[in-house]
Amino acid sequence: MRVVILFGSEMGTSETAAGCVADELAGAHEVSVYDMTDFDVDDLDVAAFHVVVCSTYGDGDLPTGAEPFFDALDARTPDLTGLRFAVFGLGDSVYGDTFNRGGEIAAEKLTARGATQVGEHARHDASTEVRVRDMAREWARSLPVLEFASA
User: Fold this and answer.
1) C-alpha angle 87/70/62, rounded to 5°?
2) Which of 9, 60, 81, 84 is the Cys-Cys partner for 101 at CB 3.0 to 4.6 Å?
């Protein structure tokens, strides 16, 4: 199964998490990793499983690197029916109501276009001792990617 990992990062932590997810999935799948700034909305492929790794910036916003991708998604309004995706969000619970909002916004925008979110929506908390690398690897092992290989 082809897996496309898209990351949106402000300080590089999402890129690190995306790399860990890719490492876990690479043995059994054809995996590609892209910074959202370098990925065109028109390249979203319903035949591939997509993983979105997205941090939260400022007051619950998408990171700067993810904004052009989601702006293009809003402007072009593609029909993403059939596209399956999972989200690994990053944030800091000190920010209360906006904790991990970047990943939630990403999921909302994709589902609004008809895509289906699958698996557990991961929410890494920078205020804990859990290392993002460890959580990303463990989460990747739980993804139901194989279920969609024949779908």
Assistant:
1) 65
2) 60
Determine contact, residues 64/38, Cβ cutoff 8 Å. Answer: no
pLDDT value of position 144:
86
**Residue 64 corresponds to which amino acid?**
T
Dist CA 52 CA 31 (whole Å) = 13
Comparing 147 with 110, which gets the higher pLDDT?
110
C-alpha distances in angstroms, 18 versus 74, 86, 95, 135, 150? 24, 12, 23, 11, 24
Average pLDDT over all residues of the chain: 94
Confidence of residue 146 (pLDDT cuts 50, 70, 90): low
